[in-house]
Each structure stands twice: as structure tokens, then as C-alpha cells.
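Here is one chain, start to finish.
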Amino acid sequence: MYSAFVIFIFYIKARTWPDNKGETLVTEHFWYNLLNGGELHPRTGQLFDWKHFNASRTGGILLWTLIDLSFAAWQVQLHGTVTSTMVGAVLFRAIVVADYFWYEHWFFETLNGSHERFSFYSIYGFAVMMPLLWTLQTQYLAQHPVELSWPMIAAAYVVFALGFILNHNVNGQKALSRGKAGNVTIWGKPARAPTSLPGSHSGFRHGCAPLLAGRGQV
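Its structure:
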């Protein structure tokens, strides 16, 4: 109901009173407009960004850990214990969620934040599909408990740690480069990136060009 209501309201809004006509995409194709057209950053006032709110304050990222913990509790109810795999799945995603909210401003520099219109894909995707799909692991483990050997558990933690550190470091380097308009040194060399896309009339820069220096090359 929430998604259907928001999709309908902002479908109409993009055609009647968009916040910024220069950033609003309206075509002659109904289904394209419904699925991936409309405004980039519709707002209420100067501070309330609807796309940001929908991505991080509705059913999306905000609820991941709560849903995971609920499935962990269900596993205890069904089997009388919490498996090591359940602990790992809940912990890994909780770290990702905490990192997102600590560096929340990076959202506006992602492909989603920079280029995806506030329409069906963005609204339904964040509010419904993400909390459903991203918690399938803990839902499965709640009903089908799996225990791994200690070497396998250790390997899973190491792989997660390496992947998380690499991803976080890449995002940090990209944010640093954008914040200083590329005038930074990464790994002893000047930062390099393709020409960024134009800035937003509403104050956001929509360029999210990949970094061609440091770990961004990976």
C-alpha cells in the first residue's frame, strides 16, 4: 500500500509540479515513465529528500537487522539454538547497515543516489524488494539450521572482512576525490576519473564517475 500510494503521488507530481523541470524525465511512454521516469530528488522543503527517505528510512536498509534478528529468534523457537551461520549472517549485515548510516552522505554519490529516478524501481525496490531479498539467508537458516566447521567459519569471516574493507576503502577514496574535485593524491599519484556528469540544479552533483586510481581501479 505504501509503495503504490507513493508511486502514484510522485508519478502525478513529476507531470504537474516537479521541483526541478530540468532534472525531471517525462517521456511519451507510459510504462517507462512509471518504472524509471520522474524526478531525481523530489523534496518537501529544503531538507526532506523523498528518495533518501525511502531508501534508508522505510522498509529498506533500516529494517535489515531487525528482520535478521527476528529470524534468529525464530530459529531459537524452532530448534532451541542459534547456529554459527546465523550469527555470522546477522553480524555481517549489521556491520554493513552501521557503515551505511555512519557514512550516509555517500548515498548521494552512488548510481542509485545520482541517477535513478524516484519512480517504481526506486520506491518499490528499496521499500519492498530489498528487505525481502537481502534477508533470505537468515530466513532460510531459521528453517534449515546449518553448522560449519571452525576453519570454514574463520574463512567466511576473513573473506567478509577483506571484501568489506576493500569496498569501504574504495568508497572513501572516491568520496575524497570528489570532495576535492580530484585534487588529491592516491597511492602516490594524482587521482584520475572520467569527466563527471553535470551538477544538479537542486544542489546535488550527479556525477558518480568511477575512480581510475587507487583501489577504484579494482
